[in-house]
Design a protein that fits this description.
Blueprint lengths: L5 H25 L5 H23 L4 E4 L13 E9 L1 H5 L6 E8 L2 E9 L4 E4 L17 E5 L5 H10 L2 E5 L2 H10 L4 E4 L5 H13 L3 E3 L18 E4 L4 H14 L1
Parallel strand pairs: 1-2, 6-7, 6-8
Antiparallel strand pairs: 2-3, 3-4, 4-5, 8-10, 9-10
Helix pairs in contact: 1-2, 4-7, 5-6
């Protein structure tokens, strides 16, 4: 065991798994692989194996919830549960893009206790124990920039942008979008229509540590290590923008 704190371990594992993924992708592309689904599957599996092995060695008593592993629900009786997405953004990864991520979070006694999001494509890892300072907006009344899906923006986010008079910044994975708000590349991320706990746990841990507002669309808290891991919607933004974003979400929802 390394003796790392939980947050430091999350960051170390996420960053190392990101390097594993970069190596896997380079290896497959160099060998002439063209099937994007096969590249994504190989990356998912290799990262899952790496993370599972590290957690088993470093925190053998803890439970694990991962997108790429069977959930036997024993975690519901555990005080500490690692929530993992070995590869968030398989499409972006397999296409050779940069906007994908690795998520490693720890849930402890009812709350997210630590988290890290590796962004290997840009060589950065965001962590809850040392979050970056969210860049200040020059004009708090300026139109908001919403992080949206490059390939399939939802009807809701399109309506939210219209209601708020804002603009959009297109990008890939969920974790990358949350981190875009943390990093100041976007002002808000609103999602509805399908995510699971592993899609948001680590990004939300980092966002909260950085002082951002995070909630469900209806304003209720994000809750993790639930029996049903479906957690389909979220809002992430600066606290000063939360009322504007919530109002736009409410108006857009009423239109639907």
């Amino acid at each position: 065991m390394s003796g790392l704190t939980d947050a430091a371990l999350a960051a170390d594992i996420a960053e190392a798994a990101g390097q594993v993924l970069l190596a896997v992708r380079e290896e497959l592309l160099d060998s002439g692989a063209e099937d994007q689904r096969a590249i994504a599957k190989a990356g998912d599996q290799r990262a899952q194996d790496f993370i599972a092995e590290r957690l088993a060695a470093e925190r053998p008593q803890d439970a694990v919830l991962s997108e790429e592993a069977k959930d036997d629900l024993s975690r519901l009786d555990a005080a500490r549960v690692w929530i993992i997405d070995p590869l968030d953004g398989t499409k972006e990864f397999s296409q050779g893009r940069h906007d994908w991520a690795v998520h490693v979070a720890l849930w402890e006694d009812g709350e997210l206790a630590a988290g890290a999001v590796a962004l290997p494509g840009i060589g950065q890892t965001l962590r809850s124990d040392d979050p970056p300072a969210v860049p200040a907006r020059e004009d708090d009344s300026a139109p908001l920039r919403f992080a949206i899906s490059r390939s399939h923006p939802s009807e809701l986010i399109t309506a939210v942008i219209e209601e708020s008079g804002g603009g959009s910044v297109a990008m890939g994975s969920a974790g990358f979008k949350v981190c875009a708000v943390v990093r100041g590349e976007a002002d808000a991320y609103v999602h509805a229509g399908g995510q699971f706990e592993w899609d948001s746990a680590a990004p939300i841990a980092v966002a909260r540590a950085a002082g951002l507002f995070a909630s469900r669309l209806d304003g209720s808290p994000m809750r993790y290590n639930q029996r049903d891991v479906y957690l389909p919607d979220l809002i992430v933004c600066r606290p000063a923008d939360a009322d504007r974003v919530r109002a736009a979400v409410d108006a857009a929802t009423a239109r639907a």
